[in-house]
């Protein structure tokens, strides 16, 4: 049986006053049906014991979080075994050129925003997963490093020639820090962001992206609520951020929102706009909150 730890304080303002929006045992059908389906039966029915899926709301700032999270051993089980490494890697390898092209345009926009050639940049991908963003940065000539919790993913990244950083202390400052879909998984997101801020070079940028939790409270209060793959996904998404709460924890870390890098305009702008409109109508927009951050006062 996995052990769970309780986090009482709000990650955004450190307040201790809170209300409980939803509290159910993991074994309750509204939670367990999703867990069993999403992890394809890799979690045994009794493995989570009598732990609860409980969402708390800070009475001072309104931040939402999962009150109970897996301990270090449980986290290793989650990211090494319960989440299938084969399926996780296949999602990246099957994504095709569009994924890598998006990474390339993103990196090029950041380089222009900083007024630097990509090959002159030191970049860090914090929570790099399998290292695909790092591979694109390597191809542009960047000095690349990555951080990651999963040993399987670290081994894969090392095999690609990506330099793995285990501790940021002692590293030379980075011009660009990418932190994509990572802070929502961490029990101590503010402490993590503070470490990233200390590792940022003067004039550098942090790109911070998380699932957008702006509609999470409304969904939780719906009597028909059932757990799902969203901003408060059981076991994984411990913190429910919005752009406003991201900005607040950034301020605590000594960072401030910066002007977003402009993507290059494509030729045939009219055609591009029509195609983009058709895609938006055909499928829902991915819900993500993204901020670019720089040192406060820079």
Total number of strands: 13
Q: How much strand?
A: 15-25%
Task: Please name the CATH topology of one domain.
Answer: Rossmann fold
Query: Fraction of residues in helices?
Result: 25-40%
What's the CATH architecture name of one domain? 3-Layer(aba) Sandwich
Instruction: Using the coordinates above, name the CATH class of one domain.
Output: Alpha Beta
Kindly report the spatial arrangement of strands forming the biggest sheet.
Answer: 8-7-6-9-10-13-12
Could you tell me the mean pLDDT? 91
- The topology string of helices and strands comes to EEHEEEHHHEHEHEEHEHEHEHE
Q: Which overall shape is indicated by the principal axes computed on the Cα atoms? A: globular
What does it look like?
The protein contains 10 helices and 13 strands. The protein has 298 residues and is an alpha/beta fold. It has a domain at 96-212 and 237-295: Vaccinia Virus protein VP39 (Rossmann fold). The strands form 3 sheets. The chain has a 7-stranded mixed β-sheet with strand order 8-7-6-9-10-13-12, with helices on both faces. Strands 2-3-4-11 form a 4-stranded antiparallel β-sheet. Strand 7, helix 6 and strand 8 (163-164) form a beta-alpha-beta unit. Helix 4 packs across helix 5. The longest helix has 18 residues, at 97-114. The chain is globular and about 55 Å long. The termini are far apart.
């Amino acid at each position: 049986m996995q052990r769970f730890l309780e986090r009482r304080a709000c990650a955004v303002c450190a307040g201790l006053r809170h209300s409980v929006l939803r509290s159910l045992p993991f074994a309750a059908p509204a939670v367990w049906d999703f867990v069993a389906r999403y992890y394809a039966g890799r979690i045994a029915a009794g493995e989570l014991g009598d732990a609860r899926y409980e969402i708390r709301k800070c009475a001072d700032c309104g931040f939402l979080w999962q009150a109970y999270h897996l301990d270090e051993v449980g986290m290793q089980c989650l990211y090494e075994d319960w989440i299938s490494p084969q399926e996780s890697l296949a999602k990246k390898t099957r994504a095709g050129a569009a994924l890598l092209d998006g990474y390339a345009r993103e990196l090029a926009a950041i380089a222009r925003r900083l007024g630097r050639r990509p090959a002159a940049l030191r970049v860090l991908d914090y929570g790099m997963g399998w290292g695909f963003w790092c591979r694109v940065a390597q191809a542009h000539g960047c000095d690349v490093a990555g951080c990651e919790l999963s040993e399987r993913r670290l081994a894969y990244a090392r095999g690609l020639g990506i330099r793995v950083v285990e501790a940021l202390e002692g590293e030379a400052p980075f011009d660009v820090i990418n932190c994509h879909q990572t802070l929502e998984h961490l029990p101590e997101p503010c402490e993590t962001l503070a470490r990233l801020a200390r590792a940022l070079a003067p004039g550098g940028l942090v790109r911070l992206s998380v699932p957008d939790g702006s509609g999470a409270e409304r969904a939780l209060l719906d009597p028909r609520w059932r757990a799902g793959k969203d901003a408060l996904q059981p076991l994984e998404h411990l913190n429910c951020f919005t752009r406003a709460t991201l900005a607040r924890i950034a301020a605590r870390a000594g960072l401030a929102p910066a002007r977003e890098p402009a993507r290059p305009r494509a030729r045939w702008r009219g055609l591009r706009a029509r195609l983009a409109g058709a895609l938006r109508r055909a499928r829902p927009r991915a819900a993500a909150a993204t901020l670019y951050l720089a040192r406060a006062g820079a």
